[in-house]
Amino acid sequence: MVRLVFLGKFGPLAPAALACAEPPAAVATVGDLRDWVADQAPALGAALAATPFKLIVNHAVVHDLTAVLRASDEIAFMPPMSGG
Amino acid sequence: MEVRIASTTFDPQAETAAFAAGRSEMGALASFVGLCRDRHDGQVVEELFLDHYPGFTQDEIGRICNDIAGRFGCPDILVIHRVGRIMPGEAIVLVAALSQHRNGAFEAVRMLMDYLKTDAPLWKRETGPDGVRWIEPRAEDLARRAGAEGAIV
Question: Which of A42, B30, B48, B148 could disulfide-link to B105, CB 3.0 to 4.6 Å?
């Protein structure tokens, strides 16, 4: 079970069920998760494909998409920040 | 050093007075209050919504505060930033800095506001007569992030 956070414009596009998700066993890395999430909701997948975004794992930016997912990880999908 | 994420209105003057109270060793207090406007890029804004990432947003702003405090010799900085639903005329942000001399306080507030306006982990959505729109970073913001001298990253 991983916790997923969709920030900014991704938020309204993400089904509520994705907040606590149980991806299949084949989803082993952060990159796998990104691709799996995109397949779960077409509108969200389209927004992710069209927007440069960062992945934040347990409040730290992750650049290595081969990083292994752990149960209880919190992964945030972060679109470009607009500031306050 | 205090960074507060506020989901309700706050009183900038009262907060600034409380921040500076009893700090008689400081010779300078500079502050800035950002207000929600009712127009943006020529379009009417009926309501602003600021999304944030609880914990992460506060930590990131705090990290930048510490960096700026060190650069300008400001022993204390206060940031209060609204999130959630904000109406035109309401205060969105208060930045206040204490220092022994004026230049440190002025520069700390200016640089912190530059950061908060463009690079803080916040996502802005405006509602107007034509509906809702998420605000994307401007081209000049992206160019500056890409490596302008003095940029905070």
Answer: B30
Cβ contacts of residue B25 below 8 Å, gap of 6+? B100
Q: Looking at the partner chain, which of A7, A79, A83 has a beta carbon nearest the beta carbon of B120?
A: A83
Sequence-ordered list of residues with C-beta below 8 angstroms from that of B43, at least 6 positions apart, any chain: B126, B128, B130
The residue with tokens 């900014």 is A8
Residue % of chain A over a pLDDT of 90: 95
Residue B77 has pLDDT above 60, yes or no: yes
CB-based contact A5 B121, cutoff 8 Å? no
What is residue B34's three-state secondary structure? strand
The residue-averaged pLDDT of B1-21 equals 98
Residues B89, A67: Cα–Cα separation, whole Å: 45
Determine the 3-state secondary structure of A30 from DSSP. helix
Q: Do B123 and A9 touch (CB under 8 A)?
A: yes
Q: How many CB atoms neighbour CB B139 within 10 A?
A: 8
pLDDT in tens, B116-149: 988 899 999 999 999 999 998 777 766 766 665 4
Say what the pLDDT of residue B118 is: 86
Asked if residue B23 lies in contact with residue B100, where contact means CB atoms within 8 angstroms, the answer is no
Say yes or no for a CB contact (<8 Å) between B53 and A83. no
Distance from CA of B31 to the nearest CA of A (A): 17
